Amino acid sequence: MSDLFAKRKLFGTDGVRGIVNENFDVFFASRLAMAIASYFPPGSRALVGGDARVGNPAIYGAVLSALAACGSKVYDGGLAPTPAIQLAVRDMGFDYGVVVTASHNPPQWVGMKLILSDGIEAPVNVELEVERLFFENRFRRVPWHEVRGIEKLPTVNDHYVEAIKRHVDREKIARKGLRAVADCANSVAALTTPRLLKELGVKVMSVNADLGIPYRNYEPAPENLEDTAKVVKALNADFAVTHDGDGDRAIFIDRRGRVIPGDVSAVILIDYIARKRPDLPKRVVTAISTSHFLMKENVERRGITVIWTRVGFVNIARRIKELGGALAGFEDNGGFGYVPHQPVRDGGMSAALMAELLAETGKDLAELVDAVRKPTIIRTKVPLPDRSRVPEVYRVLKSRYGGKEVIEIDGLKVIADDYAFLVRPSGTEPIMRITVESWSSDLANELAEELKRIVTEVIGSRA
Length: 463
Hints:
Blueprint: H1 2-7, E1 16-19, H2 26-39, E2 45-50, H3 56-69, E3 73-79, H4 82-91, E4 96-100, E5 109-116, H5 124-135, E6 151-152, H6 156-165, H7 170-176, E7 179-183, H8 193-199, E8 203-207, H9 226-235, E9 239-242, E10 251-254, E11 259-260, H10 262-276, E12 283-287, H11 292-298, E13 305-309, H12 313-323, E14 328-330, E15 336-338, H13 347-361, H14 365-370, E16 376-383, H15 390-400, E17 405-407, E18 412-415, E19 420-425, E20 431-438, H16 441-460
Parallel strand pairs: 2-3, 2-4, 3-6, 7-8, 7-9, 12-13, 12-14
Antiparallel strand pairs: 1-5, 4-5, 9-10, 10-11, 14-15, 16-20, 17-18, 18-19, 19-20
Helix pairs in contact: 2-3, 2-5, 4-6, 6-8, 7-13, 15-16
């Protein structure tokens, strides 16, 4: 915990995260919750929910108690996907919400996300104020007679499932007789996605659906989905939807057992939404980490504008709100927001949209994936023990790859005629992420190795 206090920085790309009983214990969670409650006026209505991580219960209880002690009227939403909590905060008139989750991080991690009344995560200016209250110990402690009781709110998941169902054609999906596999990462998506698909008329086989220590890593990356892909092939299912720990991501697997990258499935869904909802603005919002060539070839060529933001879905969602709408917002990691439902990433909504798309078009997901022209994309990383070296990394890379288009929205993105790459520090882990893309696989691999070497040398060198 000392490193957080030394840096006086709590929030990363997506909330505050740490390891249970190491740098994120009950004491830390209580102080953070007290700072959050102290930011909002006394009597503010707060909804708390969380995922099914084994380390969550102690932290969860501390959050509930601390928010109440600082004057908020607290409602306990229980185990629920993050997008379910976000939707309830927005639709049920809460002043804010707190989700106890570390999303895709390993099982020993825990975290907290702060949701504002619009159902979107708090922007940087709010995070900075909460951090100031935390580090200055400026907590509001209300008199004993103003501490309100904590009430259960058992309808969060019901509200979420019903809301999604209203955005798709249930009868059309049911008539198609789709078969799907739902991989719920042994967490809260198990409470909603299998039920949602079943109520849409899809025949569902659930895997990793009991709550507790996960049988696979929470992150729905290809290396963690090999067993699920085998199940899809064995059952000859139409598709699989796989989630992360808090159910806001959806990575799909096609009938052939191929794990579909999140930006590729996004391209497929965007094309469908543009036809399904021609009344929506013909634009999408995505993070700078998304493939430049993929968007240019498959989205911009269809007359859809691509708006780029910093990494982190809060930036995407808030940009959509500023713009007054969009077809969708998405990330390459499987985060996808269907704006008519809510502009935040929502794994359950993505699954329902995919089912409707397949029912409407009559096409196989594998066929749709093959129709997307895809550059070679390589994502790798190197350890980053010292973030002070990041500016030097950028300086060296700009010097080495001078004369190309450079974008510095978040990290350093360089775009050439035959390749593009992004180098940026992770907002949640001590690593430097490197993403390379090219229509030539040989060039992409060569460039990825070269960038890893350069970044490693700079990070390891002395100032």
